[in-house]
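Hi support team,

I've been running sequence recovery on a batch of backbones for a student project. Most finish fine, but this one hangs at about 90% for roughly twenty minutes before it completes. I'm not sure whether the input is malformed or the queue is just slow. I've pasted the structure tokens below so you can try to reproduce it. Let me know if you need the job ID as well.

Thanks,
M.K.
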């Protein structure tokens, strides 16, 4: 299995792969079935092995792993898988809708984090570029500029492979020209991500300092537009949800997406109050002996404001009159307007998407194990409730304990007549031993009273 994975994923050189095939035939030649499998793999090497597929853009995916992963989500597990095997067309469409909603919701969350962090790409892209930056220092032997060229470099790796890097390659994406770094290596051609050779060329070039960091590499000028988050169909929704304005440093994006799509996210020109909202309360008010008096956490800030509000409301309502109430109410409305202006300046006039466009419902299952558990219990993720796993919901589902009822008649039968009968499982009205009570208790006491009278 290790040799098979090396044939498909590891070897990027055709000559090296040919040598490894010859070594495998000698190593496993004693087994006819294994030798037959190696020969069949060699016949389909152009379709399977990375040495041949690396020059084609496939998002760095090999074979059918993306399709198989999606089929696993579609088919479900345990009882859901058995149900979907005999599902009708409407049930299958409902399953597609559930998976689509889940995928869109996750994509929206990821894009929102990208905009909140002021990034241009997702975390997965940054992780891959970080690996490339590390490999540029470990596996790239040298990177020299080509004589007579403006931005071409020859990158030599420690294994002897040489690749050409061009830091100003003009490409066309969706009808617009972009000038980005490119490389002739298989990793870049199959993924369009910054490879180790591009990272090395950017380090040795005059455009970046020697002590380059990941943030220096991940800039719009070095990123293929295919990976820019702004081209994602759900990017406008993510921008509104993040309560931020869109980036405007690439004019090509506005021409590609259209003026209306970008202008809808541009800063608003209106203002609801004065421009100097914080002038009435300068920063010196919150400074005491060089330290800020603002609570560091949101919870502490809310508690502080709540405390001040309760005291002021008590003065205005309980200890004041009509005029004090009107004065306090007017100041609160004025403060609300000023806060809206301050937030508008921070967010460039973009408000939350919750006030404009309804979002798809969020799915409660966050991982594969939870989905498998929900599929086994509810037979469908559409039936999963957001509060089905909480402790409060579990307490509500538990039946209330009934108080134990005691029958006094049966209790007397046990104590006075020494009869072994239960007396704490029913009430007095439900007692089935009325005859026994009359026989042993009432008649017995009447006989004793007769003997005493005589």
């Amino acid at each position: 299995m290790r040799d098979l994975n090396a044939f498909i994923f590891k070897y990027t050189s055709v000559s090296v792969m040919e040598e490894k095939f010859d070594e495998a035939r000698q190593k496993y030649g004693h087994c006819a079935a294994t030798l037959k499998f190696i020969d069949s793999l060699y016949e389909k090497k152009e379709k399977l092995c990375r040495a041949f597929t690396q020059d084609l853009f496939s998002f760095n995916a090999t074979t059918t792993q993306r399709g198989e992963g999606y089929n696993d989500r579609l088919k479900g597990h345990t009882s859901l898988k058995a149900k979907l095997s005999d599902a009708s067309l409407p049930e299958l469409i409902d399953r597609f809708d559930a998976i689509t909603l889940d995928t869109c919701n996750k994509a929206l969350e990821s894009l929102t984090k990208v905009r909140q962090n002021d990034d241009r790409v997702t975390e997965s892209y940054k992780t891959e570029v970080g690996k490339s930056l590390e490999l540029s220092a470990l596996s790239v032997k040298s990177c020299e500029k080509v004589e007579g060229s403006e931005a071409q470099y020859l990158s030599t790796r420690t294994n002897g492979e040489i690749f050409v890097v061009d830091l100003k390659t003009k490409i066309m994406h969706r009808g617009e020209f972009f000038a980005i770094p490119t490389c002739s290596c298989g990793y870049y051609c199959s993924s369009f991500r910054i490879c180790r050779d591009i990272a090395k060329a950017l380090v040795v070039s005059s455009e970046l300092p020697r002590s380059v960091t990941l943030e220096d590499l991940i800039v719009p000028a070095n990123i293929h537009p295919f990976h820019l988050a702004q081209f994602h169909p759900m990017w406008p929704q993510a921008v509104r949800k993040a309560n931020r304005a869109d980036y405007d440093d690439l004019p090509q994006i506005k021409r590609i997406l259209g003026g209306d799509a970008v202008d809808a996210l541009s800063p608003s020109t209106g203002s609801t109050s004065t421009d100097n909202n914080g002038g009435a309360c300068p920063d010196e008010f919150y400074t005491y002996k060089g330290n800020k008096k603002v609570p560091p956490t949101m919870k502490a800030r809310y508690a502080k404001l709540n405390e001040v509000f309760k005291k002021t409301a008590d003065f205005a309502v309980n200890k004041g009159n009509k005029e004090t109430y009107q004065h306090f109410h007017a100041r609160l409305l004025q403060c609300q307007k000023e806060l809206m202006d301050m937030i508008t300046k921070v967010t460039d006039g973009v408000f939350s998407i919750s006030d404009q466009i309804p979002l798809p419902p969020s799915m409660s299952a966050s991982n594969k194990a939870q989905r498998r558990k929900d599929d086994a219990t509810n037979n469908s993720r559409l039936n999963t409730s957001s509060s089905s796993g909480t402790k409060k919901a579990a307490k509500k589902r538990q039946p209330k304990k009934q108080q134990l009822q005691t029958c006094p008649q049966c209790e007397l039968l046990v104590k006075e007549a020494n009869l072994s009968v239960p007396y704490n499982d029913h009430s007095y009205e439900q007692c089935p031993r009325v005859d026994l009570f009359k026989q042993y208790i009432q008649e017995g006491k009447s006989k004793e009273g007769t003997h005493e009278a005589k």
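--
Follow-up from support: It reproduced on our side and the slowdown came from queue contention, not your input. Residues 260-280, 353-360, 380-388, 450-454 have pLDDT under 50 and may be disordered. No action needed from you.
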